[in-house]
Design a protein that fits this description.
mainly alpha; 73% helix; globular; disordered N terminus
Length: 328
């Protein structure tokens, strides 16, 4: 954000006819940094929505969860191999604690939990519970570390998130729907794991490419070992080519590669607060896309719970504005 402020300040001091060296030819104007950030963020939100949809679609696919995980963590390693090789020392130097948070928080445990939870519920549940509950879990982690309890609008946002999740699952309590309740519980575990990943990312000094390598390398090794030893079954040898291509694009290229790079780019262009607010539209996008793509009809619980969670994420990610002296 400081660099953006400095850029605007510099431009304000230039004469009106001074050419910006980054603008190229005076007669041609490219996208502004703000527009670039918004475009990157909208693509990222679309990828997040696609992840939620694929988690639901996996249950009717010819692929098994282990197959999807191999594609998810393997393809980024192949595409980024030269860049990861150059960063091998920095990746190896990461402390075990933060590395474990990243590998568990977004690696095999998270992936299998999100996929299994999605197979028992709906795309709307995956797209709402997993990202929606992250601010609440992160706040609990920060409180446990001795940070203050959220106050003001942040506290209201966290309460709205909790109310939205309750609204989603309430209709399945009476009468009891064990599959949906179990799936919701598994998605809550996935969300808690993603909160660990979020905290772990703050503790490592790696660029986005290095962070992807730190996540994907051990995750691919773990899932490969589980498949080779027969702990997890695989059916990729007999899977339909269309299913393999779909998960390669959505999970491997989309979630595994593009989402991490584009979200980091959007944060640099827009700032963390604005990025998180626009990113909260992911649950809404999932609900809208699930109607034509998966044939899901939004229930009354979804129509109440998703807006509550979205509003809660917006408020929970707000940061108090610094006080400015009256004479400033």
């Amino acid at each position: 954000m400081d660099s953006l402020v400095a850029t605007h300040t510099t431009r304000a001091t230039l004469p009106p006819d001074a050419a910006d060296p980054r603008a190229g030819h005076p007669g041609r104007r490219g996208l502004s940094p703000h527009a670039q950030g918004m475009l990157a963020l909208l693509v990222t939100v679309s990828i997040w929505a696609a992840f939620a949809l694929s988690a639901r679609a996996l249950s009717s696919s010819s692929l098994l969860p282990a197959d999807a995980a191999l594609l998810r963590f393997g393809l980024p390693l192949v595409v980024l191999f030269p860049a990861l090789w150059r960063r091998r020392r920095a990746i190896a130097a990461v402390r075990p604690g933060p590395a474990l948070k990243i590998v568990c928080g977004a690696g095999v445990p998270f992936f299998l939990a999100a996929m299994h939870g999605g197979s028992l519920t709906s795309a709307a549940f995956v797209g709402s519970i997993v990202p929606g509950m992250v601010p609440l879990f992160v706040s609990l982690i920060m409180i446990r570390r001795g940070h203050g309890v959220p106050r003001g609008m942040q506290a209201v946002g966290l309460a709205l998130i909790a109310a939205g999740v309750v609204a989603l699952v309430w209709r399945y309590v009476v009468p009891v729907d064990t599959d949906v309740l179990a799936g919701s519980g598994i998605l809550l575990v996935a969300s808690g794991l993603w909160a660990l990943y979020t905290v772990g990312l703050r503790e490592v000094d790696l660029d986005p490419v290095g962070s992807i390598g730190l996540l994907c390398l051990p995750s691919f090794a773990i899932i490969g070992l589980l498949v080779l030893t027969g702990v997890l079954p695989t059916g990729i040898a007999h899977a339909a080519g269309s299913d393999i291509a779909l998960f390669l694009v959505v999970q491997g290229l989309g979630v595994g590669l593009c989402a991490g790079l584009l979200y980091a780019f959007a944060i640099r262009r827009l700032g963390a607060e604005r990025s998180s607010v626009v990113g909260s539209l992911s649950p809404v996008a999932v609900v809208l896309l699930a109607i034509p793509l998966l044939g899901e009809s939004p229930t009354a619980a979804v129509l109440v719970g998703v807006p509550l969670i979205t509003a809660g994420v917006v408020l929970a990610n707000r940061r108090p504005r610094p006080e400015v002296p009256a004479d400033a």
